[in-house]
């Protein structure tokens, strides 16, 4: 993997990340295909929307259909029909949030599968092995994520355990180094600045190919999240990609980019689309609202997304109200396209060193109101 930083505009960064399966333009938003699928959306639609890279999840794929089966079928890229870059999350967050019963120890975490109740063990070494079997371009270390707010002592315990696991993940990764692929370390430390800085410095000493900031957007206010980014980002090497995990809203993305973040992922575009919410350059539009029942306008006639530019709001409202799966599919496409268009605009603005003005204009558009009536 090779990361090139081309332009900086303040602390906003424009770069490219070259992987065995292609180039990622940064800042990048990664759509989430947790179980090797984007709910209700075909991969060619994700690509046409402008996505360079997607995310899949180790926890879910290790349970079904299993990493070994995917490896026998040619790896994750062939299995899911996405020949472009893939990042796999290590599964630590899902173990903590989804597993019915779990026991965290120095060796790893033992949990009860949410699928069939079977007892499963996930160690740092096994997390790396699974991601190697999947064949992802970017793998993540196993870490322990703590929901906020939490006692400082608990945050510190999890951070130090995550650091020890990071060292074991890196050692396992380097024992059978996949050609061109990368392993990222994950900065933990909750909302405690000293712990965040200690975690970042220790991970930099371990010399990962990239660095993620984890354990945010887990219950804390946005201001806290941004403050933790400001603590961590200056400590990370300028020549390595920086990934803010599980974030977020369009506003989170703009503010993350302004603080030096290169990569993001979140389920919001598809999850909210399934619940009738469309993201547009004028802000979110709730298609469940009755005021859309006789509105012939599209969401945005100037959108590069065909659905957003042509499909009447009245029709989208009808589909959502009658729980027709096509409604969820169409709004998911709209939202994936909006997030990619947002990042394309961000990259163009950084290239021209006008990011601050661009971000301010985008934010103003969100507050201005909807497209004019026909």
Describe the structure.
- The protein is 43% helix and 19% strand.
- With 374 residues, the chain is an alpha/beta fold.
- It has an eight-stranded parallel beta sheet. A three-stranded antiparallel beta sheet has the order 1-2-3. A three-stranded antiparallel beta sheet has the order 7-8-9.
- α6 crosses α7 and α14 runs antiparallel to α15.
- The chain starts with a strand and ends in a 6-residue tail after the last helix.
Short description:
The protein is of the alpha/beta class and 374 residues long.
What structural keywords apply?
globular, 374 residues, eight-stranded parallel beta sheet, three-stranded antiparallel beta sheet, alpha/beta, 16 strands
Q: Count the E strands.
A: 16
Distance between the termini: 49 Å
User: Regions with pLDDT < 50 over 5+ consecutive residues?
Assistant: none
Name the strands of the widest sheet in spatial order: 4-14-13-12-11-10-6-5
Structural class by helix and strand composition: alpha/beta
How large a portion of the residues is in β-strands, by DSSP E?
15-25%
User: Which descriptor suits the 3D outline?
Assistant: globular
Most strands sheet: 8 strands, parallel
State mean pLDDT (0 to 100 scale).
95
Continuous helix count: 15
> What is the alpha-carbon Rg in Å?
20 Å
Helix content: 40-55%
């Amino acid at each position: 993997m090779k990361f090139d930083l081309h332009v900086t505009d303040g602390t906003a960064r424009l770069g490219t990340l070259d992987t065995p399966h292609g180039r990622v333009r940064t800042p990048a938003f990664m759509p989430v295909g947790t179980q090797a699928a984007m709910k209700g959306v075909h991969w060619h639609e994700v690509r046409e929307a402008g996505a360079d890279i997607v995310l899949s999840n180790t926890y879910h794929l290790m349970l079904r259909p299993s990493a070994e089966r995917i490896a026998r079928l040619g790896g994750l890229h062939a299995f899911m029909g996405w020949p472009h870059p893939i990042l796999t999350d290590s599964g630590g967050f899902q173990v903590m949030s989804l597993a019915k019963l779990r026991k965290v120890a120095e060796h790893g975490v033992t949990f009860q599968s949410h699928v069939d109740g079977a007892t499963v063990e996930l160690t740092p070494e096994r997390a790396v092995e699974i991601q190697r079997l999947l064949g992802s371009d970017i793998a993540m270390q196993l870490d322990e994520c703590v929901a906020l707010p939490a006692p400082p002592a608990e945050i510190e315990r999890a951070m130090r355990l995550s650091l020890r696991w990071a060292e074991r993940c890196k050692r396992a990764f380097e024992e059978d180094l996949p050609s061109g692929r990368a392993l990222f370390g994950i900065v933990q430390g909750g909302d405690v600045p000293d712990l965040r800085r200690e975690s970042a410095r220790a991970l930099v000493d371990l010399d990962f190919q990239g660095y993620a900031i984890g354990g945010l957007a887990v219950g804390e206010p946005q201001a806290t999240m941004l403050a933790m980014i400001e603590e961590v980002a200056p400590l990370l090497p300028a020549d390595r990609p920086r990934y803010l995990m599980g974030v977020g809203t369009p506003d989170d993305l703009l503010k993350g980019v302004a603080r030096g973040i290169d990569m993001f992922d979140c389920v919001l575009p598809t999850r909210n689309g399934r619940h009738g919410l469309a993201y547009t350059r004028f802000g979110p539009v709730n298609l469940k609202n009755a005021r859309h029942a006789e509105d012939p306008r599209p969401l945005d006639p100037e959108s590069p997304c065909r659905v957003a530019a042509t499909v009447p709001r009245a029709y989208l409202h009808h589909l959502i109200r009658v729980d027709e799966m096509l409604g969820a599919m169409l709004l998911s496409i709209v939202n994936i396209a909006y997030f990619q268009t947002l990042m394309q605009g961000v990259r163009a603005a950084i290239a021209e060193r006008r990011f601050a003005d661009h971000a301010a204009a985008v934010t103003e558009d969100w507050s201005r109101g909807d497209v004019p009536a026909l």
